[in-house]
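Suppose you are handed a protein chain with no further information: no name, no annotation, nothing but its sequence. What can you learn? This example shows the usual starting point.
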Amino acid sequence: MAVARDTVIRGFLLCAVLAAPALAQSPLEPWLVQSACLDAAGRMVPGRLPIDAGCARRVAQQQADPMPYRRHDWPAVEHAAAQPQGYQASDAVLGTLMGRPAAIHTFDFGAGEGRRFGAFDSGRGDGGQVVPLTPGPAYIAMTEDGGGGVQWFLSPDCRQGGLGWQGWLVAAPQPGAGWSERVVRLRIAPTAAACPTRFDDSLTRWRRTPLDLPWRDAATGRQGSARVDAIVSEHYGGGAIATADHLERFVLARDLGMVRWERWENTARSRRPNLARDAATFARQQRCPPLALSEAPDAGWLMTDCRTWTNFVRAAPGRPLRAMAWPPPALR
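A reasonable first move is to predict its three-dimensional structure. Written in structure tokens, the prediction is:
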């Protein structure tokens, strides 16, 4: 047992030493990918977070490397004692999509239906989203969940022989304090080669702002708040706020990646039933602690779902954590 434990420790340290900081392949990479903390010798520090004191040296987390921590969502207040690690882990790591560098955001369920954290449970909700890393704007090219399987967000560029990966816009480089916006055109497709003939309008807007980010320690339940440099991205189900039926809001924190997702419904346009009931039920669960920027974009909008991945599970010395292996090997 001692030999095996020493091997694990050496492997953790070797990966950390070899993971020398490299130039970002996208100016938005620091907000799309979580960082690991390094000690004076360049080794990853198990259990230390980028928001902890003493994290002066950092390196972007590679998907294949051991992880000093994982980011889980907050459990509902009635489940906190029985499920302190929440329901879903989400890794924000450097990987590849069809051989191209990408930020991988995994969605790893570990509660109910025989699901396990750290393993890809096919067809039971596990999956994620992929943002290819380029010098320009960041777009979500592909996603997977237990219901729809692998899906691609394609843009009209695929009609002219391009990849068509410029559909779901997240943000453009150098975001400012005020909103920037663009109406993009996209359509969901079952494969990367299934270029649609029609596309839908989506207003996207984004801005950069300092933010007091709530956090939780999964092992102890201890809570706190950390000041972070954040990018907020809003994706509307329509070409304007007034005519959109829903909104998906993403919060990306520097060195932590995507830390929050919100779903809002426009009561004047949405076809979903029982919106007020669903919003009230969700609010009672307290799964998403209040954020200064978490507000309705206009009158008549209700938040009906949300996840906040700042319920941290920390690795112990000699016991590194692993990111969930996703996307499917054929798509990496």
